[in-house]
Structures are given as structure tokens and as C-alpha cells.
Amino acid sequence: MTSDRFPINESWFAEVLAGECDAESLAAFQVWLDEDGEHRLTFSAYQRLWQSLAPQQAPPLDLFEGWCRLAAQLNLGSDQPEAWSLYLSGALPPQETARLEAWRAADPDNERAFTAYQKLWQAATPPAEPAFDVAAGWARVAESLERDNAPAQGQVVAMPARRRWLALGGALAAALILGLLFNRFALTPAAQTVIETAAGQQEQVTLPDGSRVWLNAGTRLAYPPAFAGTSRAVSLQGQAYFEVVHREGLPFRVQTDEAEVTVLGTRFDVHSRHRRTRVVVRDGRVALRGRDQQARVILGQDQMSTVRAGGRPAAVQTVDAKEAISWREGYISFERARLADALIELSLTFNQQIILDDPALGERTMSGTFSTNSLDAVLTEIGLALNLEYTVKAGVYHIHTPR
Amino acid sequence: MSPPESAPSEDQLVVAVKGGDEEAFRRLYFQYAEPLFGFLWRRLNQREPAEDLVQELFVKVWRNRANLDPNQSIKAYLYQAANHLMIDYFRKKNPVQGAQELLPEHRTVTAEEDNFEKRAHIEKALADLPEAQRHVFVLSRFEGLRYTEIASVLNISVKTVETHMNRALKKLRHQLRTTLSLLFWG
User: Fold this and answer.
1) Domain CATH for A374
2) Same domain? B71 vs B115
3) What is the pLDDT of residues A329-365, one digit of tens each?
4) What chain B residue is nearest to A12 in terms of C-alpha separation?
5) Per residue in A278-322, pLDDT tens?
6) Using CB atoms and an 8 Å cut-off, which of residues 135-164 of chain A contact chain B?
7) ipTM of the predicted structure?
8) Following DSSP, what letter does each residue of B91-124 receive, concatenated?
């Protein structure tokens, strides 16, 4: 015991709290803690002090957009946006094309970034631009420039004029596209931004408030370029998973054809197809009501409810929310779904036509979670469960009773 | 609580980036862009400049990749660069005053989110710390940096980091005694 009001060097507390202690020091500290109830009490006060000084969580950063910007600015290799524009216009040399396609296939994140870019590219490309003539013309200019400038980089050796054009032309195209990416509706400020995914496609979108949305295949999301007024409203057809950033006094609304979902800050999945909206909440609290209806239900973690067109929300059910949003990880999940509805989902997910030979079969119900690797595997499993078979004719899947 | 040890592959990553490996650079970006953005955002309180500074930071890293030192902690290097960019940013924004006085208060969050008064006290206590102590404390508590990393970010010795940390904790304990109704020994 010393005459100091604190019987122990405070720096020890700092080290423990900052995670600077090695195992030995930590063990010694534990002994000291256990020696005396007062010791424990003193340290717990420091712990509370430490915890009360927690940093505020920053809003989410869209790493893919950030990386695209960076890659465009730095002219990084052929797996980067400036080469993507060439690839999409068919002007990328075969070797680079193969490299880019391998890169796309290597990682779903790569493919996702590419798909997002492709969509912008298509939206921004004038219909009848003869891309290759421009390329040839620029290659000639680049060649004459090259004579004046000693090659600066070692990589330029293989195809000097071409590579240079790749870098410069690509950077220009990337600047145009990325300009659109970050200021999508600059020319028509009042217009809604509309993001649509085709069958077999998923996409991630960051909203103006930093909230993030994952769109499943065959989905349409519309939102304003900036959220003004007293709420943040978006409209949705199809299926999307939302991670909404909390904004005090600014509720977030999702409008579907059938229902309106209101939240403050939470994560949830909205599925609006077949004249029916289903909401599953992963965490937080969500209010759900039919369009033009007063009656509403409040959903908490792992709860679900549905609204049919013109109706009121069905009784709240408990579900596994993780399962409901497993589509983001390459799974598709059904819970007491009509077979007809399930097949529509499957044809969107796999971008594949599926036909019920006898429409009456569509009323059967089914549950289950399937990997979206192979449509055949999914249909085989469903077939086993419902005693059905499938046949592929001219690229179309037909579902029927066993023959 | 303790920040993760730098993985053994970290030096290899730095060596690869130094050698111009774009995939390694991509991994570096995906690993550090978000924490660095958080660090900058907490100081700037605004999304866009923080995003732009992260971008600028990685552009600089790539362009100056030849100068990367695989023996130095890349994390410390990145935070140091972020810190410099932030000071430049404030200097450009307001060239008359020194950058230091312009750094806004650090934003904190308390367990009871609705308790504004308490939060204000905590932020005030943090803002009242001498600058050197505050920097050290924030890098440790908010950004999870090790003492050695903080030392290279701020270009001071590890011993000095320790001293600042201890003094900061002592001051905060004193300042927030009543606010947090903390019971201390004695």
C-alpha cells in the first residue's frame, strides 16, 4: 500500500484497456484484480469510462464504387473500368478479353462490380457509335505521339500504340461513365433514379443517405437523387434487402404496389411480387400497412408479415430472417410458397423459362432452401418433394407429373 | 478488445504492392479503406470530403509505392498519411488560422443514445485534453492502433505515447467522475 490515493499505477489500466498487455502482464493483472473487491471496483470504473468513450460509427462506405474510382484514376490493368468500356464495345484484344473474363468469373464481387458498370455503360452509350473507327483513329494519333515521347512504362512494350490508347481512351470513357455513376441524374434533378436488375442479376445500390440496398434478380427500385422533406421514400417491385441508416426524425419508407413499410434504421427484406408484399425483419423495428389502409402491424427481429393487394397485413409470424435473405449469398428460400410463385422466382434467378404443363399443379405448396448453383439440382429436389418430374425441351423447362 | 496482430502476410502484401501488383493493391484498399474512412469521417463530420481524402490517400500510396517500407507497419503508414491529408485539408479550407485549432471535436456515442447532456460532457472532456494527449488517446481508443503504431503515426517515441495515454486517462477520469458517476478508489 502506498500513500497515493491509487494503489496501482494507472498506466497498467491504460495498457490493459488499450490491449497493450502481453499474456504475462495480463495474468499478473488478473491476480491483482482477484486480490481485493476494491481492486475490481476500481477497474470496473475505468472500464465504464473506456466504454463511454466509444467512437461514433461512420456511415457505410461503398468499397466497390470507391475501388472503381481509384482504378479509373490510376489506370489500373485490364480488370478495371477503363478496359471494361473497351471490352463492352468489343475493342479489347483477345488476350486481354480472356484475362478480363477470368477476373469476372473469379469472384462474385468482381462480377457484381462489372454488372453495375455494364448497366451504366449501356445507359450512357449512344446507340450507333462506331467504336472501332474511333479506336483506329486514335491509335494513329497515339502512334505519332509515341514518336515524340520515350515510352515511360515497361508494360507498354508488347503493343505500344494499342496499350496507350487503352489507357487514354479508357480513362476518358471511365471519366464519362464514372461521372454518371456519381451524379446519375444530374441533368434531370427532379427525376427519380431507377435501378432495374434483369433475370439472373443482382445488384447493390447505395442511397443518397448512405443506406444500402441489395436488389435480387428481376427487381426495380426507384429513389430520388436526394431525400428532401420529412421522410425518405423509395419504391420497389421485386425483392430487395435494406440496411437503413438511422436518421433521427426522418423515417425511411418503402412503397410497393400493395403495401408501405416504414422504418427508422434497421435491416430487413421486402419481397413484392405476385400481387403480394412480404416483409422479413433481421433487426430493428418495422411498421407495415397496406396501401391506402390504416391498419398496420409492427415487426421486430425475425418476424414476418405479408400484405395482399388491397388487404391488411396478415398475422405476424416468426421466421429465420437469415434464411429469408440468403438469396444474397447464392441461395433461394421458400416458405410455404405456392409452386407457381416459386417457379417464377426460379425463372428470374436462373434467367430460364420454366413452364407448368398442368397449371393446377401450381397450387401445391412447398418450403426449402436451395443453392442457386444449378437449376437442375433445385428442380430435382422439388420434384422429389412433390412427386413431380421435369423435362427440358428446346431450352425450356417443363414441370409435369411422372410419366 | 485488442486490435488484431498484423498478419504475417501483411509484409508480403506491402512487398507485392511495392512491386506494382494491382491485385495486392486492391486487397490493401479493401482492407483499409473503411477504417480510414471512419477515422477521417469522425474528424471531418462530413461524408464527401472523407471519401475524397480516402481516394487521394490511396492514389498517393500507389504513385509512391516505390517508397513503401515493408519493415514498417503499413497501418501506421496509412494513418500517418491520412492525418497529414486531413491537416492539409483544414489548412486549405482556412489558410488564415492554423490547422490544429480547426480540428472539430471528436464525435462519440454513449450507450444511452438519447442522453445528449452526457454525450456533450464526454465530448467536452475529450476536447479539453491537450492536443498531443487527445491524438494519442483517439488513435488508441477509436482507431484501435497499437502504441508502436501510434508512435510512428505521430512521429514520437513509444514511451511518449505511453505517457500521453496515462495522462489522458487520468484527466478523463477526473473530468467525467460525476458525469458517469464513476466510483474510484480512495
Assistant:
1) 3.55.50.30
2) no
3) 778 888 778 888 888 888 888 888 898 888 888 888 8
4) B166
5) 898 888 888 898 887 778 888 888 888 888 888 888 888 888 787
6) none
7) 0.77
8) HHH-SSS-HHHHPPPPPB--SSTT-HHHHHHHHH
